[in-house]
């Protein structure tokens, strides 16, 4: 069982529930207990301006959210989480959306800045759900406004938007 301070630090990682294309992430997950596992943890919980590092097979679970990374760094400023950085080849996220479908995301680096409400995925990112997909080298998502920016760095971005499911055609009595 993790200590209350480790669980508090890990709770910051729950903010990853808000990844782009995941605005419909299972809202009840935020109220579930979080389970954080890693091969090693180095954390100074006494300092309000500190960094906690979880390394080696990092697994974070909260409700339907499942995050896997080689390393997770949580930076605190003034006692609040300032930044969460997930890295690995590749860091992955999987979560059930409120409509029951699954969302998958991966990137070499995922950075969440809660004070700015900004999420940045870099290095061969890909987000997939039944609604569509987005992939490229860098994406910045503003969770407050819903604005997503990809590309502009000389690389291509690919987006696929799936059509809405259509109701079966009705037989006109023929």
Query: Quick one: how many beta strands?
Result: 10
Radius of gyration: 18 Å
What is the strand content? over 45%
Q: What letter string, H or E per element, gives the SSE order? A: HEEEEEEEEEE
Mean pLDDT across residues: 77
Written overview of the protein:
The chain is built from 1 helix and 10 strands. It is globular, with a radius of gyration of 18 Å. The model is unreliable at 1-24 (pLDDT under 50). The relative contact order is 0.15. The chain is 6% helix and 53% strand. Strands 1, 2, 3, 4, 5, 6, 7, 8, 9 and 10 form a 10-stranded antiparallel sheet that branches. By secondary structure, the chain is mainly beta. The longest helix is centred in the first third of the chain and has 10 residues, at 4-13.
Short note summarizing the structure:
With 174 residues, this protein is mainly beta. It is 6% helix and 53% strand.
Task: Compile the SSE list and pairings.
Elements: H1 4-13, E1 34-37, E2 40-43, E3 51-62, E4 65-77, E5 80-96, E6 102-113, E7 118-129, E8 132-142, E9 148-150, E10 158-161
